Amino acid sequence: MKTTEVLVIGGGIGGLTIALKLVQRGVHVTLVEKLPGNNKVYKGELLQPKSMQIFDKLGMHDLVKNSSKQIDVLDLIELDRNNLVKDQSFMDYRVLPQPYNASYMIHHEELKKILRDIALTFEEFTYYPATSCTSIDGHIAQMKQGQETFEIQATYIIGAEGRASVTRKAMNQSVTNFTYNHHFLTVTFPRPENFEGGQIISTYNRFLGLFPLPDNQVRSVYLIPAGEYKKIKEKPIAYFHKLYTDLAPAIDGYVQELRDWKKIQLMIPIKYHADKYTDGHLAIIGDAAHAVHPMAGEGMNMAIQDADVLGELLADILDNKTSDISWYEKVRRPRVSFMLQMSHLSALAYSFPYQSVSWFRRKAFERIEEDPTLHYKQMLNVSGLGIWKESIQDRFIQGGLLPKRMGEVSLGVKEKHVFNDQQDYPWKRK
Ligand SMILES: Cc1cc2nc3c(=O)[nH]c(=O)nc-3n(C[C@H](O)[C@H](O)[C@H](O)COP(=O)(O)OP(=O)(O)OC[C@H]3O[C@@H](n4cnc5c(N)ncnc54)[C@H](O)[C@@H]3O)c2cc1C
């Protein structure tokens, strides 16, 4: 039987981040990944500022930055019935304190490769691709690699397997999916070189998100009513092109590079939150523990943040600096709950195809852009760097019931709401 200090099940972004974090602290990690190579399914590609801070601590900030497309500003464009611009507002990452005041788009598989390549330089890291964990019994996990089966015994087992988690099952945890009235078509295709910022383009009943990737590519998400995918796919591909070019003329001549429906995937948003993240020597991170609506671009970032906190904690536990694994959940659960709710509300803002909803959305975005406090709160909460909840006063300002504030937020006030190391790793204070 093979033995290891920490077994990580799942080599997605969450599993690879925690593995790298642990091997850098001298912990012996074995990671098993069921896929033999690249995953063909589109997944999260937007890195929020907190993820960049975590990658900085892991010594890979510049590597990630140089493989990404930096996004400073996200334009929110609302069109009228004739697809003419009715309103335009923006969300600006540059209001955040430096140096983590931008987001980055990176190909998902490229980010996995960066993490894996660095982890493989450590002799403490053992990697089994094309290996599936089939069950866990106590400290022993059963593996299947082709026709072969074998066992791995571990002091700690981390479930980073995504939505269908063997570890969550071993913890006797089930999750209840919340589903939405809409799905998304998602695909990456070439973009004009000067298509720089992120764009969310909507009418009262349509939604298109465009997020530039490196190599003059752009990732897109287009909202469709739940259950319509089959019907839409029966139409000629030109129908799909027109859905996009009606809303974003700038990509005319580029989206047509998609010549059939094969590359266009269906993305079904769901939301769930496991009741427990740990059970003795077992713990779950990322999508194994929670799934979030993709509207705010948080899924992959939440997996990275889980990995950062749990990785730091496990390394300290194995170093006899603390013994309490429940710190992981104490730090992460409130932050995850907040993100789930924030993403859920963002999703609802685009879920109902009524003119009145579109009007409220436009007003709210306009106020967020124009009121520096609201703008900062919005960007901080999205960034993952901290949480500054909206007050009743904020809600009234957003709804136009109170006048907007004009004063800038001072750097001191901004930084007060950014998580510090003591909040990220509170057990270290003891
Ligand atoms: C179809 C889809 C599209 C998405 N698109 C977006 C998006 O546009 N924007 C966004 O923000 N988020 C998106 N997400 C969410 C985001 O990608 C995830 O939140 C993020 O990837 C979570 O990372 P993770 O490491 O927890 O899990 P995953 O990325 O799911 O990684 C889990 C890994 O574990 C492996 N695995 C599973 N079971 C086993 C097993 N038994 N043994 C060994 N290995 C196993 C899998 O092969 C996989 O590589 C999407 C998710 C999905 C499923």
TrEMBL record:
One Gene Ontology molecular-function label: monooxygenase activity
Alphabetical list of SUPFAM superfamilies matching this protein: FAD/NAD(P)-binding domain
Keyword Secreted: no
UniProt keyword annotations, A-Z: Monooxygenase, Oxidoreductase
Domain of life where this protein originates: Bacteria
InterPro entries in UniProt: FAD-bd, FAD/NAD-bd_sf, PheA/TfdB_FAD_monoxygenase
Chain ranges of the FAD-binding domain: 4-341
Gene3D superfamilies, A to Z: FAD/NAD(P)-binding domain
Name of the protein in question: FAD-dependent monooxygenase
